[in-house]
C-alpha cells in the first residue's frame, strides 16, 4: 500500500487543483475531498497494483470523466456535499487520469495531449519514456481548453 502512496496522492492533488481553480469551494472542503479521494483510490487499487508489470490493471486504475462522472470522484465529492451536476460544472467534461506504478498522467479532451504529472524510474534499470512538453500541458488545463485547436482542410468530392 505504501508503494502507491505517491501516485495516489499526485492524482488526488491534481483533481483537487482542478476543483480549486474552478472556484467556489472552501479550502477545508477541498482538503476533505482530497483525503476522501485518496482513501477511495487506495481501496479501489488495493488488489490491482503491480509494480513489476506497471501496465497490468491500467484500465482498472483509469479515472474517467466522459459524460459520466467517475464513481470514485463522485464518491469523494458526495462526502463534501457536491452533486454530480455541480462536479460537471467544475471539472473538464472530458478527463482521463491514468494512475500507474511509477507514473501518473492525464489528458483533457478526447484528442488532447497526454501530460505526465509524476514519473519515477522503474527499478531494474528500465529507463522511463521522455516527458512531453510540460508547459503546454499545464497551460492547457490552466486556460481550460478541452482539446487543442486544429486546422482542418476540407476536400469535397463531386460526382
Automatic annotation (TrEMBL):
This protein's name: BTG1 protein
Similarity remark: Belongs to the BTG family.
Taxonomy, superkingdom: Eukaryota
Domain spans labelled Anti-proliferative protein: 91-110
Record-linked SUPFAM superfamilies: BTG domain-like
Gene Ontology terms: biological process: negative regulation of cell population proliferation
One of the record's GO cellular component terms: cytoplasm
Organism: Corythaeola cristata (Great blue turaco)
Amino acid at each position: 500500500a505504501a508503494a502507491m502512496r505517491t501516485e495516489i496522492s499526485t492524482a488526488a492533488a491534481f483533481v483537487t487543483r482542478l476543483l480549486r481553480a474552478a472556484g467556489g469551494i472552501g479550502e477545508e472542503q477541498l482538503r476533505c475531498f482530497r483525503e476522501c479521494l485518496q482513501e477511495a483510490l487506495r481501496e479501489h487499487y488495493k488488489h490491482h497494483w503491480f509494480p513489476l508489470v506497471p501496465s497490468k490493471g491500467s484500465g482498472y486504475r483509469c479515472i474517467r470523466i466522459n459524460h459520466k462522472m467517475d464513481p470514485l470522484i463522485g464518491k469523494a465529492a458526495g462526502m463534501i456535499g457536491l452533486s454530480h451536476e455541480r462536479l460537471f460544472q467544475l471539472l473538464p467534461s472530458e478527463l482521463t487520469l491514468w494512475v500507474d506504478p511509477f507514473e501518473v498522467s492525464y489528458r483533457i479532451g478526447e484528442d488532447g495531449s497526454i501530460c505526465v504529472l509524476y514519473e519515477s524510474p522503474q527499478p531494474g534499470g528500465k529507463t522511463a519514456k521522455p516527458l512531453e512538453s510540460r508547459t503546454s500541458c499545464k497551460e492547457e488545463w490552466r486556460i481550460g481548453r478541452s482539446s487543442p485547436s486544429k486546422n482542418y482542410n476540407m476536400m469535397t468530392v463531386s460526382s
